[in-house]
C-alpha cells in the first residue's frame, strides 16, 4: 500500500487514490461537495488539547509525535485507520496545516508504513 500526504488545498489528482481527511476541523474555504474526500476520519486527528499545545511549533514536533502516537494507540484510532487504509492500493492523507513537515499527517504516514 502506498501512503501519500497532501494539503487539502492542493488540486485533486486521480493518482491520489483513496483520500482521507485526517483533521478534526473541516478546512476553511473548502466546500465538502468539491473536496474529493472519500472519508473524513476525525478520530485520527490529535485531541484539541494536544493540537493547541503543539501550535505547529517545529521545536515541539518530537514531543508532539510521541504524545500523538500515544493518543492514537490508546483510542484505537490507529488500528481503525490501518484497517481502512489497508483496503486500498493507494491512500492520500489530507491535512490543512501550512507547515508541510510538522503536522499530524506526517506522523500518520510514518505509522501506516511501518
Explain this structure.
By secondary structure, the chain is an alpha/beta fold. The protein has four helices and four strands. The chain is globular. The chain has a four-stranded parallel β-sheet with strand order 1-4-2-3, with helices on one face. It has one domain.
Provide a quick synopsis of the model.
With 114 residues, this protein is of the alpha/beta class. It has helices at 48-54, 61-75, 77-85, 104-112; strands at 2-7, 18-21, 39-40, 90-95.
Distance between the termini: 11 Å
Q: Helix content range of the residues, please? A: 25-40%
Q: Which stretches of 5+ consecutive residues score pLDDT under 50?
A: none
Q: How many individual β-strands? A: 4
Key features of this structure:
alpha/beta; 4 helices
Q: What order do the helices and strands come in, and which of them pair?
A:
Layout: E1 2-7, E2 18-21, E3 39-40, H1 48-54, H2 61-75, H3 77-85, E4 90-95, H4 104-112
Parallel strand pairs: 1-4, 2-3, 2-4
Amino acid at each position: 500500500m502506498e501512503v501519500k500526504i497532501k494539503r487539502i488545498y492542493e488540486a485533486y489528482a486521480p493518482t491520489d487514490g483513496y483520500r482521507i481527511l485526517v483533521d478534526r476541523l473541516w478546512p476553511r474555504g473548502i466546500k465538502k461537495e468539491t473536496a474529493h474526500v472519500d472519508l473524513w476520519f476525525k478520530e485520527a486527528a490529535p485531541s484539541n488539547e494536544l493540537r493547541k499545545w503543539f501550535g505547529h511549533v517545529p521545536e515541539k514536533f518530537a514531543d508532539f509525535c510521541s504524545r500523538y502516537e500515544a493518543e492514537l494507540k490508546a483510542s484505537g484510532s490507529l488500528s481503525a485507520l490501518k484497517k481502512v487504509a489497508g483496503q486500498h492500493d493507494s491512500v492520500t492523507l489530507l491535512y490543512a496545516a501550512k507547515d508541510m513537515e510538522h503536522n499530524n499527517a506526517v506522523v500518520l504516514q510514518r505509522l501506516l508504513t511501518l
